[in-house]
Amino acid sequence: MSKMWAGITAGITDPVADDFNSSIRFDSRMFRQDIQGSIAHAAMLTARGILTEREGKVLSESLAGILKDLEAGSLRLDLSCEDIHTFVEQELTRRIGDTGKKLHTARSRNDQVALDLRMYLREECDEIAALTKTLIVALTNQAEAHKASIMPGYTHLQRAQPVSFGHHLMAYVMMLLRDLDRISDCKKRMNISPIGCCALAGTTYDTDRRMEAELLGFDDISLNSMDGVSDRDFALELLSVLSIEMMHLSRLSEELILWASWEFQFIELSDAYTTGSSIMPQKRNADMAELVRGKTGRVFGDLMGLLTVLKGLPLAYNKDMQEDKESVFDACDTVKMCLKVFTPMLATMKVRTDNMFRAAQTGFINATDLADYLVRKGLPFRNAYKLSGQIVARCLAEGQVLETLPLEIYREFSPLFDEDLYGEIDLKTCVRKRISEGGTSEASVEKQIAYVRTVLNND
Ligand code: ARG
Hints:
Layout: H1 15-21, H2 24-27, H3 31-47, H4 53-72, H5 84-96, H6 109-145, E1 150-155, E2 158-164, H7 165-190, E3 192-193, H8 209-215, E4 220-221, H9 225-230, H10 233-259, E5 267-268, H11 287-310, H12 324-347, E6 350-351, H13 353-361, H14 367-376, H15 381-398, H16 407-413, H17 421-424, H18 427-432, H19 442-458
Parallel strand pairs: 3-4
Antiparallel strand pairs: 1-2, 5-6
The protein binds arginine.
The site of arginine has 10 residues, from helix 6.
């Protein structure tokens, strides 16, 4: 087949090379953006008198018709076309003849593809942000239900200090809020129009890039035509943002997998999100969480892939850049899929507060509070810390925990100990008293929840 770019070459390639060169299989998903971009381009060319009113009208009506037919499924893609841009122009010319061939005046596929990708990805940003919000809502609701459910908080995966499960979940909500912020920040730089940069150097036609940008909902235009056609930072930024978000989901997945294990039994995932084993009937595997954790590697790969594609490219457009789409599309698809399964899985998760509390009771996680008790009675913290350590050792030797060790024994260590000690090292007190801003007290968790809800409502 003869190519739209047949010039000094014959425009006929080996079928294998043709297939290799073609991107329509993966760029056809941008057909809407491509056509919207062309409609705006026709309008701008008409406004500047580069096309006649009549030509502008025929072009925009015909483009709208192609869009409608593609959406309805009555127009099939011609996969022998090199890319979606070629297909739309070919179909346009088939419908309206020579006027169709005028559309490509004062533009190039180089600025066209950059435009389409920015338009496509800004919609993805909105979708991913909306899905992230649903996850934030699900997590915040669980946090509210468990703002007073005590569990061991860990460092080094060793029981450290008591926290509420709600507080633990809100930590993830904070991460996701930052993800939302990063998405909207990345969208700002994405929403800059490259159309009108043409092949690389701009054009001799008297175009109006700002009009075209405005018609397409962009905030501004790229100020250097060579940068406009070569820049894929917006795709890299989105991939970075998505990698970070996946890293968050992966950390939470890891915790869910642990918590759902027989050893922890802190949570039960609903049957709808749990799989069995083909040979071990007792199994309840947290496959969804494992897959999210696994798919994180895939999104990181997408980021590394595109960074590597771009790192050695001279200005301006190079065909290597066609490789931008599959990675960024794959990352968007993956993140959306993960969020769609994660949110209902978390919303339906049952929390075994009894097991959490039991685990909190036996790990000496109130040892810091014991030290703080002595500090309040006048002992310097370092001494109090040492004494608490010796008391924990004594408990271990006696088969006791801090709550059950008799007062006589405490007094052997220090005369500062009194009956009120037991109230102070009660796990509920330990959590309730952590009222420092951002701490695990119920009041603080409530404050966090209120903050998150205001942020979401104001969005
Ligand atoms: N299919 C190409 C891409 O995705 C479109 C731009 C082609 N431009 C060119 N000069 N060959 O990057």
